[in-house]
Structures are given as structure tokens and as C-alpha cells.
Amino acid sequence: MPLGIIAAVLAVVSVGIAVSPLGTILGSMISVTRDHENLKTRVDAHELGAVMVDVLRDPSMDSVDFISGDDERIPARLRDLGASYLALDQESGTARLEFGGGFYHYGYEVQVEGIDAYRLVCYGENEDDLEELGTFKHIKKQNRVPGSD
Q1: How far apart are CA 4 and CA 1, in angstroms?
Q2: How many helices (DSSP H) and strands (DSSP E) are in the chain?
Q3: Cα–Cα distance measured from residue 29 to residue 17, given in angstroms and rounded to the nearest whole number
Q4: Containing domain of residue 54, as a range?
Q5: What is the pLDDT of residue 26?
Q6: How far apart are CA 84 and CA 86, in angstroms?
Q7: Would residue 129 count as lying in a domain?
Q8: Which of 8, 39, 81, 147 has a CA-to-CA distance to 109 between 20 and 30 Å?
Q9: Is residue 84 part of a domain?
Q10: Residue 38 confidence (pLDDT)
Q11: In a domain, 28, yes or no
Q12: Where do the H-state alpha helices sit in 20-149?
């Protein structure tokens, strides 16, 4: 078979995959994996964790356990990330900022530890996707550098 025909067949197959549901699924999986890895390596992840703790400790949020990612009650610093939602559990001192959907969910989770510290992890649906990002001292919002939240 001449090389031109093989190239044409491969081009048709490639276009077919790209415009088919399979191509959309593969593209989404690649995008989600990249976005999840980006969360793990953000240099400001600990600052985002501090903002999550602020929301968790906000008295006006005491009866709230689930907030849509675009809800105005979520600080702009978190809202601008495009998360699906923020889940709060005041009793356990845990907040989850979740991304993704459909085939894969991932995000940040903070666990308050004592009065002034929190543990931050980046999680995914698979057990091996859990990455400990550290335990940080929580600086109250009014004591932070302006513009850091």
C-alpha cells in the first residue's frame, strides 16, 4: 500500500477519534490529570488552605455544609479557581474544595488541627492520588498581608 494512502487512512482515523465521544473523553482525562497535578504544585496552596479555614470558622457558615463553587459567600480567591463546590464539616473541622466531575474528582482538603494549625492535602479519587502538602500555622485573616486572600 502506498505511503500516501496509509497517511490518508491515519488522518481519517485521527479525525474520527478527535470528534467522537472517545476523543472527548480522552481529552477530558488528559485535562483533568494536568489540572490535578497543577493543584499539587501550586506555590500558594497553603494560602488557599488558610482561606478555606477562614470559611470553615466563619460563624455565618455554621449551618452550611455544601456551597456551589460560584456562590458569592466563597471568597473570590477560592471562587476564581473554578471549583465545583466547597464542602464544610464544622464538627470535624474539615473543608473540601472539589474540582472535576463526571469521571474524576479531585481537590484540596484542610483539616483543622488545634487552635492555630491545619493539615492540607491534595486528593483524588484513587488512594495513590492523595498527597500531603503539609501542616501549616493558621494566620488569622486580619493578621495576613493585604491581598494574600
Answers
A1: 8
A2: 4, 6
A3: 14
A4: 43-143
A5: 43
A6: 7
A7: yes
A8: 147
A9: yes
A10: 82
A11: no
A12: 21-41, 45-57, 76-79
The torsion angles phi and psi of 2, rounded to 5 degrees, stand at -60, 150
Q: What is the pLDDT of residue 109?
A: 94
Give the pLDDT of the chain (149 residues) as one tens digit per residue.
566 666 555 554 455 444 545 444 444 455 667 777 888 888 888 899 999 999 988 988 888 888 888 899 999 999 999 899 999 998 999 999 998 877 788 999 999 998 889 999 999 887 677 888 999 988 766 554 445 44
The answer to whether 51 and 77 are in contact (CB under 8 A) is: yes
Q: What cell does 119 get? A: 493539615
d(C-alpha 85, C-alpha 98), whole Å: 6
Task: List, in sequence order, the alpha helices (H) in the chain.
Answer: 3-19, 21-41, 45-57, 76-79
Number of domains in the chain: 1
> How many other CB atoms are found less than 10 A from the CB of residue 102?
9
For the chain, the residue count is 149
Q: Is residue 30 part of a domain?
A: no
Q: What is the pTM of this model?
A: 0.72
What CA–CA distance (Å, rounded) separates 33 from 106? 9
